[in-house]
Automatic annotation (TrEMBL):
Keywords from the UniProt entry: ATP-binding, Hydrolase, Nucleotide-binding, Transport
The name this protein goes by in its record: Bicarbonate transport ATP-binding protein CmpD
Organismal lineage: Bacteria, Bacillati, Bacillota, Bacilli, Bacillales
Record CDD domains: ABC_NrtD_SsuB_transporters
An example Gene Ontology molecular-function term: ATP hydrolysis activity
Amino acid sequence: MKKPALQLEGVSQVYVSAKGAFLALQDVGLTVNQGEFVSLIGPSGCGKTTLLSLISGLMAPSAGKVTVLGEAVVRPTPKVGYMLQQDYLFPWRTIYENAALGLELMGRLNDTSKLYVKELLGEMGLARQADRYPHHLSGGMRQRVALVRTLATEPDLLLLDEPFSALDYQTKLQLEDLVVETLKSRNKTAVLVTHDISEAIAMSDRVVMMQPNPGRIMTEVEVPEAIRKALPLDAREQEGFHALFRKLWGYFEAIDGKEGASYG
Ligand code: ADP
Ligand code: MG
């Protein structure tokens, strides 16, 4: 048996502030297998970003255990790559220099890794942009640079926190396909946070629905094989897609009815 890429056991997170203690996550358990693509969806404030921070080792959970490839996570590790909604490209660095930043920070920039960055830039259709600066690029291109930077350090597990939410619809669909193709071809494991139900279904093998107050897992659904096998754009045309969308939509409404929560 292969080790799971990610395992969360009884994970809880309490934030303490002047107003008191707030239970942001309660008893979260989740296993993600190697090569699997899992989406986390749920209303704003249900703890999705908190969960990614715990998985990435940026924060330690108040209770419970986070394990990546069989090892307890106690601090950030190169095994985990984190891509955010905002691309955080440095305006004074070229596209190539931004893409190589992670490797540089880890002290792993050498001839081989430099070549790999250039290869990835080529794969993402950015070869001709390598010597340009971020302000020359569209939002979709900038997110592709951020993806190259995340992939360049060769993490096994990628965490994606709403990476497409600031993009226009067409660019977002193109990037969904590109990301799924790139990650599947490298057998990477991914956890995607999104508030877009159709994006979650189209991109993933499994969708995990969370609910707030306190943040916890409400339910999980497997995405049917026909949808899983298709690239995100075609996945939306597959039989069963709309039924699954309706089902997940129903969960959102059930939470809304109870909590008066907002989407996001
Ligand atoms: P999501 O990403 O699902 O919108 P978050 O993980 O960002 O949710 O936040 C979950 C809850 O925890 C929210 O109610 C938020 O206000 C609270 N929260 C997040 N970060 C902090 C923090 N550093 N200190 C106190 N409360 C926080
Ligand atoms: Mg968030």
